[in-house]
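Hello again, I could really use a second opinion on something today. For a while now I've been wondering how a particular protein folds. Please have a think about how the structure follows from the sequence. Here's the protein in full, and shout if anything looks odd to you:

***
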Amino acid sequence: MSDAETRVGAWPVEQTLALGWRLEHFPTIGSTNDEARKRALQGDRGRLWIVADEQKAGRGRLGRTWVSPPGNLYASALLLDPAPVARGFEIGFVAALALHRAVSDVGGSGFFLKWPNDLIWRGAKVAGLLAEGVTLAGGAFACIIGVGVNCAVAPQGAPYPTTSLSAAFGRAVAPAELFGALAPRFAEALAIWRGGEGFAEIRAAWLQVAAGLGAPIRISGADGGREGVFEALDARGRLLLRRAGRLEIVEAGDVRLLGEPAPAAGEAAGKASRR
């Protein structure tokens, strides 16, 4: 099992195996996503979770550094050919929904998903996800989804508010405890998704817990910034922004919430899902 240290005690190895997945734990690693990518290129069969206590070279979206001290959850899932390549991006929504449900399972409330890949609590970031794809020899497609959760430590000096699960819960939340809920929730969400056939159901569930739905937001990206109302997600998971009486499709960018949602999240999601 390479040089990984596998612990049956703290980390739920047998539970993960029962789900049809393997689990490998590293006390310290460069990046769990990089390790999963290396395994894919070496011919790993997939359905593998890589977890670590600490990352020395953690990454977020757009190559940003993901500060990764001990006490938080750093995990990456490796899947081979989970869906047609054109639908691979959808797995980010699958994983985000699974993470939201896992946090609820261990006692969390008041958490929301911020497009495209953040879990927030009271406007502060608690977790982020990073989905990456690799085309392998022979044409196989490896999908890697990295999950970084502030269980105990919220990084300081970020350009946005941050917090931790422990602060939100009022008690310590161990990374292995959260992962014990995340692994089955991810397997469940993958079964609903069915390689893309069930994305409409995933999208509708994601919208039920979407941050800022129906509210004014600001999108920042390579094309500058623009403000409008977060109307919905389209069938491909792209954000629909209402500006000056028309809908604009947002492919990528960073979202900042500018106000409270006009309708309740569930009501807005119901309206959006019927579009």
